[in-house]
Amino acid sequence: MTAAVRTIATQPFDDQRAGTAGLRKKVQVFQQANYLENFVQSVFDTHPGFAGTTLVLGGDGRYHNDTAIQTILAMAAANGVARVIVGLGGIVSTPAASHLIRKYDAHGGFILSASHNPAGPRGDFGIKFNIRGGGQAASALTDAIYARSCEIDRYRCVDADTIDLHNLGTQTLGDLTIEVIDTTEDYAELMESLFDFDAIRALLTSDFRFAFDAMHAVTGPYAKRLFVERLGASPDSVRNAVPLPDFGGGHPDPNLVYAADLADEVITRGALDFAAASDGDGDRNMILGRGLFVSPGDSLAVLAANARLIPAYRDGIAGAARSMPTSRALDAVAAQQGFEAFETPTGWKFFCNLLDAGRIAVCGEESFGTGSDHVREKDGLWAVMAWLNLLAARRGESVADVLQAHWKTFGRHYYERHDYEDLSGEQADRVMQALRQQLTALPGRQFEGLTVTVADEFSYDDPIDGSRAEGQGLRVVFGDDARIVVRKSGTGTSGATLRLYLEERRSDEWELTLPTREVLSALASVADTLCGLREHTGRDAPSLIT
Ligand code: VG1
Ligand code: CO
Fold first, then answer.
1. Whole-structure pTM over 0.85, yes or no?
2. Distance CA 328, CA 341 (A)
3. Average pLDDT over residues 44-53
4. Which of 157, 250, 392, 540 has the CA that lies 20 to 30 A from 482?
């Protein structure tokens, strides 16, 4: 049955430029008439070849997910898409969406999420378009979509009854076929193709104490399927496993602040041997071991160093990459093990070309993002599985043992990120400008016994397609010993957020287990001196330290 295509007149919004990971705004912004429609039609108008192809659609289950899915289905039908694969209940984690696009050879997918940002009617919403192959749209495409959104004057849709997303099966809408599938099955299969399930099952069914916290967000159903059904972990080891539209009123950002209860249980009370948490859309991870927190930079370095213990990477990795602000712990491993290491701007889209070209197999960001070439997004559960596989292969060693051995071999990169949230744009720019104008004069100068070797504004030339990304953060480098990085966030929905990243390397054995805050305090005051942080922000302290 064909459904009549309607062309609806609209007017452009001027704020649909994508940030670090798609378009993110307050729910109320997305609820404006035609707001979502304009963006989606801009994608259809800009990116060629949708007619007759497959799309993947779903999100992290936050408030407005269902409504947005219905809108996109009616627009997909009107724009000639042949098939849309939707997750049951409209739920698809970000890494699972990337996998489905790859597995079903889809032309692309819409992922509905504002990641870890709070949800609910007053919370945030977001949308991102991923291309064939599962990767995030590159800047050239997001720029073109934005340009189109600035001049759009009509969109297409069909009149449709509400599509049932809560039962598995196939429905039609005009010429469009809609398949509602259980994506946890595809995802579990993918994990099974990468990891040693027998070894992990043996670990999880032993006296090893394990917990995973889904933070009331998207990973709950995936974690249940994997850890409980496939790997034999006890049902209560997966916590907060039902995705809620408001994430239970919480802030599903897996870090020591927002996952404080879990951290207390594992770090302070030592009540578990290993625990992990993920964020709203399932692409971030936090790894904890009895008595300690594994910093994301260390986690990436340890996984890269031990990749051969995991079946999928048993022949070694060709290369690895980290975003510029991420600690250089990875570089130390690359130097010793002889694989190639890349430094890219913040945002997963910059890894995609390197992954496609086979130049890297593992990559990560300091913002609790780790992943590999199995999909084109960071993948929280992949990181948890990788750690479990590693611990199963090095049975008898605790997370602390693994880390200490790592630091002994490669040195330790102490690391902190200080966020100054809800600043005005001018305040954030004044800090950036204060540092920017000193950059050329800094090399050779000494601070707290450290000598500046490089001070610049980071830009990146993509080695695969030659594209250039400029203005990707300011960095002050003190040889291999330390670094200060400052950049403005590209994911916020109100005001400006400034991120200050501090890193200091220590390699003498007695220096490997010091409190991070103590090690970095001198560097933090150097950063304050260089950027005038307190002066320009009017703040005594950051709003969040991770
Ligand atoms: C932040 C992180 C970045 C991450 C991005 C999306 O961006 O710093 O590393 O890729 O969020 O993550 P920004 O521009 O605010 O610093 V997610 O989990 O939102 O998809
Ligand atoms: Co996320």
1. yes
2. 10
3. 94
4. 540
